[in-house]
Amino acid sequence: MVNDVQASIRVRSVSKRYPGGTKALKKVELEIGPGLFGLLGPNGAGKSTLMRIICTLLEPSEGRVEVCGFDTVGQRAAVRRRVGYLPQEFGAWRLQRVEEVLDTLARLSGLADRRLRRERIEHALGAVGLESVAQRKVKKLSGGMLRRLGVAQALLADPPVLVVDEPTVGLDPEERIRFRQLMADLGHDRVILLSTHIVADLGAGCGQVALLDRGEIVFQGSPSRLVAAARGRVFEVEPRLASAEGLEEVSRTASMARVVLIDGAPPDGAREIDEPTLEEAYLAFMARRGGHGSILEEVS
Ligand SMILES: Nc1ncnc2c1ncn2[C@@H]1O[C@H](COP(=O)(O)OP(=O)(O)OP(=O)(O)O)[C@@H](O)[C@H]1O
Ligand SMILES: [Mg+2]
After folding, report:
1. Who has the most CB within 10 Å: 25, 157, 204, 226?
2. Domains, in order of start, for the chain
């Protein structure tokens, strides 16, 4: 790993306007240190845009980003040596074997020495637990394995900063648990910036979260602070009452539903939940902003 004093990402007043006029980011400020950092936000919030700027694939329209102290525009090569990136749509390469994919990507990233490449590939496959499928064709991997292959390629150069964009979409519950564990393990000595709208996938290992809503950071802090902000807004009600005005349903069983109160008073018989989950807190926060933060279809 490149040895810097401390791995970090600093986003300073970053705005991004796409050709055509979409303002995808508005004066975004973030300070990210070692550990797992969750970037939450509904579709179109600007998560991928921010991540592409951090990885030097896009330039900000205003403001600047530093990765481990290096500027993503002026010192692009230094930043690239320190960042591993798993893009949202990593899934090409279907006909190749796992090891071939990694070898090609390692060569593209400038690792010319064959022996060194083998070493790095073995290390990356080991880190994500894919050693046993090194010879398997990519199209025969499960969704979870494909995501882990994506992480393996991001780890090839053993970077101190890892940026992973919606890595858990399409995974089954078991794969999600494994992935969460993998992120927690990798986060011990790196910065991991992970975007998701499946809040539960951040897991207990997540130290900080930021909420991005229509290009603006509307919250940054610990998950417990976000949960604290939702107290008094999450209730258990009879299922037939869950669709009442002013409520947003989060989950239900046959006998009860959990809802977030958006406005007005809770319905008769509602029981306040003392310890809302992080996704309930996220929903409550977004709903109060009049956001469109629907994660309902993802909550089981
Ligand atoms: N290349 C582009 N050209 C023009 N507009 C774009 C481009 N990429 C993204 N946008 C717009 O910028 C905004 C932010 O998009 P972005 O992909 O960053 O959001 P996101 O939070 O990653 O969404 P999702 O959860 O769907 O992945 C959206 O309004 C999107 O339509
Ligand atoms: Mg995205």
Report:
1. 25
2. 9-82+159-220 (3.40.50.300), 227-295 (no CATH)
Identify which has the larger pLDDT, 233 or 16. Answer: 16
Measured CA distances, 165 to 48, 54, 194, 212 (Å): 7, 12, 6, 14
254-277 as b/e: b if 16+ CB within 10 A: eebbbbbbbeeebbeebeebeebb
> In the structure, what pLDDT confidence band is assigned to residue 92 with cuts at 50, 70 and 90?
low
- Please state, in angstroms and as integers, the Cα–Cα distance from residue 80 to each residue in 67, 89, 134, following that order: 9, 19, 26
CA-proximal residue: ligand 1, atom 27 (nearest): 43
pLDDT (0 to 100) of residue 112: 84
Q: Are 282 and 276 in contact (CB under 8 A)?
A: no
Choose which residue among 14, 22, 195 to substitute to test ligand 1 binding: the one with the highest number of ligand atoms within 8 A of its C-beta. Answer: 22
Q: Whose CA is nearest to atom 29 of ligand 1?
A: 44
- Give the bridge partners for 36, in sequence order: 192, 206
Q: Residue 212 CA: which ligand is closest? A: 1
Q: What local confidence, expressed as pLDDT, does residue 28 receive?
A: 98
